[in-house]
């Protein structure tokens, strides 16, 4: 259940980042709003899986930088996870494109803030 909630929250956060940041685009075939939602949920699924499996490993390997910057390097890690998601999802005709690192940094910041606010309202069982 928490995976589905996390998936929907990530889909909303990615949609919001694509709406607010000009370099993040979500490409779909234009078959209607329902298809756009399916494409967005697919991108959110890729993003959620990347955050579950890849992000902890990257955080572990960059632990000295995280300590040195007092956690601010997490923004760079979030940008890299967004760029990895864009690369993985762009292997199909439907996906997300991110223009560069700074665009990914702003998009990652928006996604992190949305996830933070939702976790305040709907806390995990942990």
UniProtKB/TrEMBL annotation:
According to the lineage, what is the superkingdom? Bacteria
User: Keyword annotations for this protein?
Assistant: Membrane, Transmembrane, Transmembrane helix
Show the stretches that span the lipid bilayer: 33-54, 66-88, 100-122
Q: What is this protein called?
A: Phage holin family protein
**What organism is recorded for this protein?**
Rhodococcus oxybenzonivorans
């Amino acid at each position: 259940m928490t995976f589905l909630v996390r998936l929907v929250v990530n889909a909303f956060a990615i949609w919001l980042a694509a709406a607010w940041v000009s370099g993040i685009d979500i490409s779909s075939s234009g078959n209607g709003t329902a298809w756009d939602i399916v494409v967005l949920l697919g991108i959110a699924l890729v993003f959620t899986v990347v955050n579950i499996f890849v992000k902890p490993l990257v955080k572990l390997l960059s632990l000295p930088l995280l300590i040195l910057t007092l956690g601010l390097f997490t923004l760079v890690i979030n940008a890299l996870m967004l760029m990895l998601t864009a690369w993985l999802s762009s292997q199909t005709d439907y996906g997300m494109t991110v223009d560069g690192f700074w665009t990914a940094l702003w998009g990652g910041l928006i996604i992190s803030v949305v996830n933070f606010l939702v976790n305040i309202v709907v806390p995990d069982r942990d």
